[in-house]
Amino acid sequence: MVSLLLRHGRLITDPQTSVDIAIADGLITEIAPDLNAATDQIIDLEGQLVSPPFVESHIHLDSALTAGQPRWNQSGTLFEGIELWGERKQSLTLEDVQQRAIATLKMLASQGTLFVRSHADVSEPSQIPLKALLAVREEVKDWLTLQVVAFPQDGIYSHPDNAQRLEEAVKLGADAIGGIPHYELTREDGVQSIHKIFDLAEQYDRLIDIHCDEIDDDQSRFLEVVAAEATRRHCGPRVTASHTTAFGSYNNAYAFKLMGFLKRAKINFVANPLINLTLQGRTDTYPKRRGLTRVKELWQNGLNLSLGSDCIQDPWYNLGSGSLLEVASMAVHACQMMGRDELTACYNMITRFGANTLNVADGYGLAVGQPANLITLDADDAIAAIRDRATIRHVISRGTLLVSTSKPEISWQRKI
Ligand code: FE2
Hints:
Largest sheet: 8 strands, mixed
Distance between the termini: 51 Å
CATH architecture of the largest domain: Alpha-Beta Barrel
Structural class: alpha/beta
CATH topology of the largest domain: TIM Barrel
Order of helices and strands: EEEEEEHHEHEHEHEHEHEHHEHHHEHEE
Bound molecules: fe (ii) ion
Strand content: 15-25%
Number of strands: 16
């Protein structure tokens, strides 16, 4: 028995054709024009675009919605943000983190995101951020897939207990293991931290997502270490290098050599254009660097790169609406992805490519037999969706309608 029938939609992969989509037992059971199915619920999409849901591949839910606490970041810099978070962190409770995380996830889901990877700071003895986000993962699992990365924000070797804390976090149930090699005390500690992350991932069968070279220093070269480990251990698709902003500052001779190594390693990348455009390049006068990784070149070389928000209204970024269409639009501009194929690629970076990063691609996509997770938009195609920051009209999760949004109405008050 079909539980939900969507009429008159246009698939994002074939927007010229009107189709109906039948859903039963949480799965897509049929996609074809003019389906005839007995069902309790019918939604007439009236030509809306149908897309797989958005994938938020990099966010910090533990700090989300704390902007202005205890004060606003007046300089907008990384360092003032770290100082403010150091103060705000003292008053974290499980309820505090859980309540903000759920509110943020609802903000994301209402705008079409149903898959999220969040980092959780594991550098405090209490492990409150991690425990709270693991509880949230359980609480939301009926309508959203949340992955939690154990993220040693202060480094693994900067404090004698941090390596132990990271392993504890993995035992508690983190989906992925994180790191921050460029923030370790020495280059050697940074390299060692990467070896440690890969060892733990092997031992506990976990994914890897490392904050890698998020700095303007053209000598910050931990990406090559991550790529080498992934190549030697044959685990590239399970590994993500997040940010890699220094890649935008490397000299071309080194960058071209590195690109060849990255293609062998087959690791994933996440760029966060909103936040890195504002945080990087701060020590430059002019010319001022954009502070982003080589998004276009990584995509052109066939590497999997997705986009993330990183921060939503936290000490580092006062803004953040939870719209991945806004993130994609910023990537289009900042990375000069203005060709038609490049624009479409930016849409893929918040959908399919994000699913690759999260290693959830097997259960993702608009096809018969797949879980019925999809969104409908007021847009002609993927490019128009980015251009217009299209309204997400329906969000369908696990086969049932989760959120719907009315079409905004513009009413002219004068005859023109
Ligand atoms: Fe981050």
